[in-house]
Amino acid sequence: MASIADSLAQWAAELDPGEDDLALAQLSLVDTAAVALAAREHPLSEIAAGLPDAARWAAVGHVLDFDDLHLESTTHISVVTVPAVLATGGDARAYLAGAGVMARLGTALGWPHYRAGWHATCTAGAPAAAVAAGTALGLSTEQLATAMALAVPAAGGVQNAFGTYAKSLQVGFAAQAGVRAARLAQAGATADPSALDAWLELVGGAGQLDLAGPAVPGGRAIKVYPCCYAMQRPIAALRDIRHDIRREVRSVRVSTPKPTVKPLIHDRPGTGLEGKFSLPYAVATALLDDYPDFAAFTDDAVNREPAQRLLRQVEVTYTPGEEGLLTGEVEIEVEHGGPALRVRLAQPPGAPSRPPTDAELREKFAACGADVPTLLAEADWESVRALLGRTFPRTGTVE
Question: The MmgE/PrpD C-terminal domain covers which part of the protein (predicted)?
Fold first, then answer.
């Protein structure tokens, strides 16, 4: 019986992308590049400057938490695979091969893996990056399976990192691990492909993968706010009623299935990064800011007195629901001295079933920098590779 690595490698080698697949790849490239460029002045861009290309570009592409998400696998699918492809001179097909493997591995790992505290972007990401890089390098089917096995030792990452630089750095480590594994396989390194099967079982995966359907089954969720995906729905819900609030807010009651807020580990955030993983701060920024952009997730914004006051007024109750970040719906009630305002929402803008509009994409890319929409209007893989190389050049060496 073929190992999981052998099956995935065969699927990747035979992948023949259709028009919808290629359109998805193009938006993934542009979206990933835009949010990386938005981090040009972020302190992490200097901290990570000594890392190899894939690690460096993935880290800066994730630090603002504005990159896309594959909901079924709970993975930031493009910020790992796009840098791995760019670092090895690949194209849309290499991206789709890696992203498709990542979606399927992450889905096989399932919600229990995420609930246990693993960062699935990193665990599923390292073997997937090996496929992305290996496809770009022209590896054979057997070499792709070997590369996945060689990436297994680096397939780790935990949610305790959320709210710190470690979260984006461990995403960078996953991308670079895949590139390293692919290059080693290309050079003739050997490994037992069944190592991927053993790893999947050890970290709680189901072990059965569905190789049917489009390259990336389920598509991706595109963020319209620069914070954890678990905050997109409550922010969007409150933005629908914020202009109806005429008096000082007295309390905000949020009712949601508990799995939908699993990543939101900071109830009393004190930094901008912690604010990106805080349900109470999702309420605060949605009510205080016209558009929760990068300025809403600075240390000063999180610590402003009105925001800190609102944090203390948020009450959260959990309702029954299936596992997943968009299970059920969120219901929010705002007491503000007049009749209580109530709102419910199931699908936020940017969800796969509610794709971002052209206006929402323009607003997002404009927030990433005044020149970003122009730079990315006709972006291709080689031009983006050159652009990231100029914007985030490697200075020094951190191996």
Answer: 225-374
Count CB neighbours of 217 within 10 A.
Answer: 16
Cα end-to-end span (Å), the chain: 38
Which structural domain range is residue 317 located in?
A: 229-345
pLDDT for the residue numbered 370 = 62
> 232-239 vs 279-288: helix axis angle to the nearest 10?
30
The percentage of residues in the chain with a pLDDT greater than 90, rounded to a whole number, is 86
Query: Mean pLDDT throughout 38-65?
Result: 97
Return the number of other C-beta atoms located less than 10 Å from residue 40's C-beta: 12
Q: Is the pTM for the entire model greater than 0.90? A: yes
Instruction: Examine the domain organization and report whether 100 and 203 are in the same domain.
Output: yes
Written as one letter, the residue type at 30 is V
Q: Are residues 135 and 95 in the same domain?
A: yes
Confirm whether 151 is domain-assigned. Answer: yes
Per-residue pLDDT tens over the stretch 84-94? 999 999 999 99
Q: Which residues contact 215 (CB under 8 A, 6 or more apart)?
A: 15, 17, 21, 24, 25, 96, 97, 99, 100
> Burial code of 132-152, b = ≥16 C-beta within 10 A, e = fewer?
bbbbbbebebbbbbbbbbbbb
What average pLDDT does the segment 200-214 reach? 88
